[in-house]
Amino acid sequence: MQTDRPALLITGPLDPVVEEFEVACEERGLPLLVLDREKYGIDWGLSWTSGGGRIECIVEHGRGSFDSRHLRSAFVRREFVTSAADAGLIGGEAEYIGVQRAIHVNSVLRWLSSRVPFMNEPLANIRAMSKMVQQQTALDVGLTVPRTFVGDSATLAADFQAVDSCPLCKKPIEATRLRTETGGVAVHLTKRFERRTLDELQSLKSCPCVLQQFIEKRDELRVTIVGQRVFACRIDTSSAHLDAQVDWRHYDWANTAHEIVELDETVRAQLLEFMARLELSYGAIDLVRGQDGATYFLEVNPLGQWLWIEDLTDVPISEAIIDWMEDPEPAYSLG
């Protein structure tokens, strides 16, 4: 059984981070154990036993087996969901096995996170995914948040849009992928929203959404926080096509400037306090700086991407993450 103290990386297929991390960790002499969620049951597995007053958890993988007590740190890059396609099953049986696998692995990870430093404990990730929790926490630390409606009530949505005449935008509850009738994949992103009649808003009953004050922006900031290290990237979409000006994820890189900037000290302190209250060691935060001079908090993604920022600006976010995995910082304390 292996006894070196590796860092654990749980991710999904085709994650570009893996190769970069493997090279960097090898250069440092830091063992790295990578587990692809789609290879569960094929290349790796998790089992635990209890007895003699203790619980033992073993990771089995291509290079042998490993006692989880010897892990140095862990970073869950992708939420653990999986199918049972490898078992040659379809329909109800495949769905059943997929659910059993996800419950088992996520249960083990939650137990493990109380014994091994995790860059974001699984339960902290789940809590931080809530837009309602995010906005309340942002308000509690003094951040400015755009006026927002989230829900399925046509009446309340109509009341929301009637408060003033400010422009509005529409967002999905979560930017999940949608498989189209032709077999392609689409993602609903932020779009400008024209006020609707009460009858037109009745469709909310079947699919809730987010309506939000649209900020006439000067620029946007993508702030990546790793422990106490803060990396702020200014994203200027003023010369990009119109969809990208509304939401930079309608990518128009050729006309979208990226540059590393220093955050206002007050905003920086507020964001670190925000992360502490959510008990997050890693987060990708989206801010907008409005034409009115205010800085608005939009959201945090505890599993957010960062590599494109490194590619465009050379900011060392990956290095900061590997630093943390090699020498994990203690859990946040508000005491």
UniProtKB/TrEMBL annotation:
<dbReference type="InterPro" id="IPR011761">
    <property type="entry name" value="ATP-grasp"/>
</dbReference>
<dbReference type="GO" id="GO:0046872">
    <property type="term" value="F:metal ion binding"/>
</dbReference>
<protein>
    <submittedName>
        <fullName>Unannotated protein</fullName>
    </submittedName>
</protein>
<dbReference type="GO" id="GO:0005524">
    <property type="term" value="F:ATP binding"/>
</dbReference>
<dbReference type="GO" id="GO:0018169">
    <property type="term" value="F:ribosomal S6-glutamic acid ligase activity"/>
</dbReference>
<dbReference type="GO" id="GO:0009432">
    <property type="term" value="P:SOS response"/>
</dbReference>
<feature type="domain" description="ATP-grasp">
    <location>
        <begin position="135"/>
        <end position="326"/>
    </location>
</feature>
<dbReference type="GO" id="GO:0005737">
    <property type="term" value="C:cytoplasm"/>
</dbReference>
